[in-house]
């Protein structure tokens, strides 16, 4: 009876799903942390994610190497970030509105160039079977850990250390907290912000490559349904702390895995409502941490979203 | 963050006091710059087309032919204009208060579901009563849906841009649940839908036109919204609050009520768009409601600089691009996302043009003032 887990299958599927689903959240939110710490918000990461998914898949298919795909996605994401950063450096240009425009443009370009890649099959990214100790196929499936998940955790710690202990981290934090103070120190805020946005875009592109090259593991126009946007809210929830982003990503990933997990044990009633769980969770988190009278703790001073 | 027009105290200033040239110079900046930005966006898209090996001349020629070339194409364009007018108002009205609400799609689909589900219950009512009731119900659902975003913004400081987009995803999930579950017509096999509307509950065409009444109602609603913003004290208060919330609060303006009423009104209009889609186009509520009108509406509102009167021509223009999508796919072998790319370029161009205001001496009234 070892395959009949009954209700235990649900938590196992959710844990496994959290690990699988959280990786794009993790990369996008780390990119957004980097961008927002410099005092700018990039709402366009949803578009970057989708374009990263498309370009990663296309390059992996053409070259036969999934890692070339990841690199291409990172590069494409960096270009999107760079464009966003440069456009927002122009006076009177609103970063939130540019984000909406870049989201539309990124998705439009991804669908435009991605049409020929909907059918072909590109190679998948490798993963480690950390569930070898268990006889249960469900546990083995749940603990199949992708390399990018581990890279993402490493990146979270690296960013945390960077903000805390390095000169680059300090420069980004100063620029994010006060444009005037940064100018007084001889820094050029818009240059720092542009590079931070470009690097953030690169991370979001990698998150997109994970979507198309591992889970769900194919390219189509519905590949992302707001993960890039939820990641922006997730950053607020994580109070701009990269390590907290990792925990929040797992939580959101678990919420995203709820629908498929219930479906796997035969609960199909209200499937769409479970599917909406991550959005509802994001909304409630946003409501819970916002405050009318004061800025959110830990928010960079120059960030327009919390002003 | 200010995306609303700055409060233009000089609007009422009669041009006789400054000379008509100065008046014209001052007013034309708001038309010339967006038009130039639109043309720049179209030009950049033309370069993009050349890079992928297609002819921009062919493209724009086909768009013109498919969107405005014949009475049939005008009819196609104008029937897409209706929902876009409502969707754009759902962005423009909150924008007067400085809010960037981008979740109109959610109010459209839920308004449509409300109309579709209620129509089954009202089948025995005469159309002249039932159709307005359907419109009211859809508006009410939309008003609550988007008004709640305004309330969350005011009462809790929740960012309205993210919250409204999240609720749009939630609304689409809710619609899928409702039309595949509780409200599903068992006879709809391939495409889960609510029961088809009784013939007398369907909204017909404007007499003499092949375009349904949604367009006429949309135009009227745009004009009324302009009157509300430009000609009433309530609209004037909203513009002040949009310029500076703190100053408005010090003045004793009811900022909370302003925010909630403008977001709710925008949502009501978006809900009405859903009702027209169900009663005049689809004949029942189903997944076709999520056609992306809400997202195109965002671009229209920004292109119109959040002015409800300007929304009308801009919506006709953008509806034309969407109406020509099919012909372009067939004739030029371009993917259906082509229009989305074009919209993206135009959107970026119009946002960049914000930095041009006040830069050109030709628009400065002082230059033209007599004496």
From TrEMBL, chain A:
Pfam family, one: BPD_transp_2
GO MF term list: transmembrane transporter activity
Transmembrane segments: 6-31, 43-61, 67-89, 96-114, 141-163, 191-213, 219-238, 245-265, 271-289
Keywords: Cell membrane, Membrane, Transmembrane, Transmembrane helix
CDD domains: TM_PBP1_transp_TpRbsC_like
Entry membrane topology: Multi-pass membrane protein
InterPro entries: ABC_transp_permease
Cellular localization per UniProt: Cell membrane
Gene Ontology cellular-component terms listed: plasma membrane
Predominant localisation class: membrane
PANTHER family from the UniProt entry: ABC TRANSPORTER PERMEASE PROTEIN (PTHR43370:SF2), SUGAR ABC TRANSPORTER INTEGRAL MEMBRANE PROTEIN-RELATED (PTHR43370)
Protein name in UniProt: Nucleoside ABC transporter membrane protein
Species annotation: Silicimonas algicola
UniProtKB/TrEMBL annotation, chain B:
UniProt keyword list: Cell membrane, Membrane, Transmembrane, Transmembrane helix
One Pfam family from the record: BPD_transp_2
GO terms under cellular component: plasma membrane
GO molecular function: transmembrane transporter activity
Transmembrane segments: 31-52, 84-102, 107-125, 131-154, 161-179, 211-229, 255-276, 282-302, 309-328, 340-360
Topology with respect to the bilayer: Multi-pass membrane protein
InterPro entries documented for this protein: ABC_transp_permease
Record's subcellular location: Cell membrane
PANTHER family per the UniProt record, alphabetical: ABC TRANSPORTER, PERMEASE PROTEIN, GUANOSINE ABC TRANSPORTER PERMEASE PROTEIN NUPP
Protein's UniProt name: Nucleoside ABC transporter membrane protein
